[in-house]
Design a protein that fits this description.
heterodimer; A: six-stranded mixed β-sheet; 10 helices; elongated; disordered N terminus; B: mainly alpha; 2 domains; 13 helices; globular
Chain lengths: ~400, ~300
């Protein structure tokens, strides 16, 4: 830890004397039920976050991701279960005793304080002496390109600068854990992409354990060491972005992660595989034992190939989106398609990536087959992944 | 009124209707004349007593008669003003001390309460807030006698002899100002103080008092302007408490003014000048701070 603090950024951030515990974070069956709610907003959450790891909580709105973060911050009560930072049980500690710093969605800067005062406020409360505060604020400001603005009020800053002040406020404290609640959602698209990279590289440089909440699955995939997908307060899967993409644990994760979304469809089980548009897609025999008669089949748009006539799933092209190198076709098919949430939906298009230089014409009938080994099979009842 | 006149004359000056003037400025000459006539009439009615006050205060007391009440003074004198100032200067000072301290104290307490009720909720907060509001509707007359008795009890304790006059009034006005100040601040904080800022302060390690002094208080100026003006004015203008709790030697200016006006042989110029002197401070407060008052009210309710 200490070595990391004194790492690439020179003198930046002091060594924590005697408090060198690993800043792991553990959610141990942590549950939050809002008063008057019939079911928990966060239901028995179990995640272990390693020291220095960047974990992203992602999910649709109302899935409990922000609540989970706020439970870790101490802003939300934990009704049952525990939360640990390192070996310390912080479940019932107040926020100030947890040694965490948080970046809020709307930045929550103190409007009457200058940038420097905003960043130094926590240190001032902690009783750090003035020259030391100034030194640390200036160092953080240098990292974040905020040096010229230290004496300004938040009102006189642009959105991106305010966002950086909020980051600076967290960095200056050199806490055990950074908490970030959708810190990029108030920025415009271009700045969001830039800042995304900056935050990720800054986090790696500082080596501080970080929990980051977003609803944007691209943010989640690009920033996180690991990504935790939540839905209705229940953890669906917690894995590396790669693993999450290649091995979604259930239909919800399969549909949620990836853009454009994975094609999900009902398919009957046949000998040696699954029937897709009258043709058999081979699937491991062992895996199919638990499948029953029907499964949910998932194929990502880029895992489809245009086949010879009649050799795959027949798709009528309705829209062609040309992106240069690639093109996406949106079409309809006889096969029953399912929405990303795993429920029946009327208007889900079938999406496939095709060669951008020779895209099919609108209205054309094409045949598509999945690439070998790139199909995802899920139990039609439970939605859980079958096989590897 | 103005509308019907406008309709009647529309044919004569059709252009006026379609010029797209701001609302309230449309209408004809006649309409406007009537409107201004009414405004002036009401204005005169309101200002008439003030006129009598001012002209009488500059007259010689021998020249004040009912038949000449409306006429301008035959010769100007400031005898009345001098006499009024002489008898009112000490109570004016007491009023000033009393109203300022009471206004500051009840504003600070109201601000603390308002912060807790708006943003630092605790079990039973709603009930207690309702009880606070009841405090605004207690008729002072109903509690005057037990209050009087209680304050005399306090005063008669050993070493509490100094607790008399404006000190009693400071306590009373501070306490009776708490409900309205609490309400004003609660509404102000509910809109002007985002929850995230308080949560950020919590995570930064600030406790309740620290949050209040470092975060809440610095952005409370508009609320303070409203409650300070309100409390200053109501404490300054109060006569009932002064009458019960003070005497001619330690009372505020309202009490002294009553003494001044109550004699056998009233000296009208002195009384009129005294009234003007006594009401000048509140007038000044409104003239100087009136726009902040409106701004503060708005920032608490509309924003």
């Amino acid at each position: 830890m200490a070595a990391l603090y004194n790492g690439s950024s020179g003198t930046f951030l002091p060594v924590k004397e005697g408090d060198d515990a690993m800043a792991t974070v553990t959610f141990d069956n942590a549950t939050r039920v809002y008063p008057g709610a019939s079911k928990p907003s966060v239901d028995q959450l179990n995640i272990e976050i390693e020291d220095g790891e960047f974990l992203v909580l992602v999910g649709p709105s109302g899935c409990g991701k922000s609540t989970s973060l706020r439970m870790l911050a101490g802003l939300e009560e934990v009704n049952s279960g525990r939360i640990l930072i390192g070996d310390r049980d912080v479940t019932n500690l107040s926020p100030k005793d947890r040694d965490v710093a948080m970046v809020f969605q709307n930045y929550a800067l103190y409007p009457h304080m200058t940038v420097a005062d905003n960043m130094g406020f926590a240190l001032k409360i902690a009783g750090v002496d003035k020259p030391e505060i100034r030194k640390r604020v200036e160092e953080a400001a240098k990292i974040l390109d905020l040096s010229p603005f230290l004496d300004r009020k938040p009102k006189a800053l642009s959105g991106g600068q305010r966002q950086r002040v909020a980051m600076g406020r967290a960095i200056v404290r050199s806490p055990q854990v950074f908490l970030m609640d959708e810190p990029l959602s108030n920025l415009d698209a271009k700045l969001r992409v830039q800042t995304r990279t900056q935050i990720a590289s800054l986090q790696r440089r500082l080596g501080v354990t970080t929990v980051y909440v977003t609803h944007d699955q691209i943010e989640a995939m690009t920033m996180g060491d690991r990504v935790a997908v939540l839905k209705d307060g229940i953890l669906q899967q917690c894995d590396s972005p790669r693993r999450m993409y290649d091995h979604p644990a259930n239909v919800f994760v399969a549909g949620f992660i990836g853009s454009p979304a994975m094609n999900l469809m009902e398919a009957p089980v046949t000998d040696g595989g699954v029937n897709l548009g009258g043709h058999t897609v081979p699937v491991e025999r062992d895996a199919m034992k638990e499948a029953g008669k029907q499964v949910t089949l998932g194929v990502r748009p880029e895992d489809l190939e245009v086949a010879e006539d009649g050799q795959g799933l027949a798709v009528t092209v309705e829209v062609v989106e040309e992106l240069g190198a690639d093109a996406y076709i949106y079409g309809s098919t006889e096969q029953k398609l399912l929405a990303a949430t795993g429920e029946n939906a009327g208007e889900v298009p079938f999406i496939a990536r095709v060669d951008g230089r020779r895209p099919p014409k609108k209205g054309a009938l094409i045949h598509l087959t999945p690439k070998a080994g790139h199909v995802h099979v899920f139990n039609a009842e439970s939605g859980l992944r079958i096989g590897d | 009124m103005a509308t019907s006149t406008a309709t009647a004359t529309r044919e004569a000056i059709p252009v006026r209707v379609t010029t797209g003037q701001a609302p309230g400025t449309e209408g004809t000459m006649t309409g406007r004349v009537i409107r201004y006539a009414l405004i002036i009439l009401f204005l005169v009615m309101v200002l008439m007593p003030l006129y009598v006050l001012i002209v009488t205060s500059f007259k010689h007391s021998a020249n004040v008669t009912a038949s000449e009440a409306w006429s301008l003074p035959r010769s100007l004198t400031i005898d009345g003003w001098q006499a009024a100032w002489k008898s009112l200067a000490p109570p004016l000072g007491r009023s000033l001390i009393m109203a300022v301290i009471a206004a500051i104290l009840s504003s600070i307490l109201g601000s603390l309460n308002g912060f807790v009720f708006a943003r630092w909720r605790f079990p039973g907060a709603t009930t207690i807030f309702t009880l606070f509001l009841f405090g605004m509707f207690i008729p002072y007359q109903a509690i005057m006698i037990p209050l009087q008795g209680m304050l005399i009890d306090v005063q008669s304790q050993p070493g509490m002899g100094w607790f008399d006059g404006i000190w009693k009034l400071i306590v009373v006005h501070t306490i009776f100002g708490i409900p309205i100040c609490t309400l004003i601040f609660r509404n102000y904080y509910a809109t002007a103080l985002p929850n995230e800022i308080l949560e950020a302060a919590k995570v930064d390690g600030a406790g309740m008092l620290r949050t209040y002094t470092s975060i809440v208080l610095p952005i409370s100026a508009p609320g303070f302007v409203v409650t300070m003006i309100w409390q200053f004015t109501s404490a300054w203008n109060d006569f009932l408490f002064a009458l019960f709790l003070t005497n001619r030697n330690n009372g505020p200016v309202t009490y002294a003014l009553n003494e001044l006006a109550g004699g056998q042989n009233p000296n009208y110029p002195q009384i009129m000048a005294g009234v003007l002197v006594a009401s000048l401070p509140t007038l000044l407060v409104y003239i100087l701070l009136g726009r902040y008052f409106i701004g503060g009210l708005m920032s608490g309710s509309v924003k």
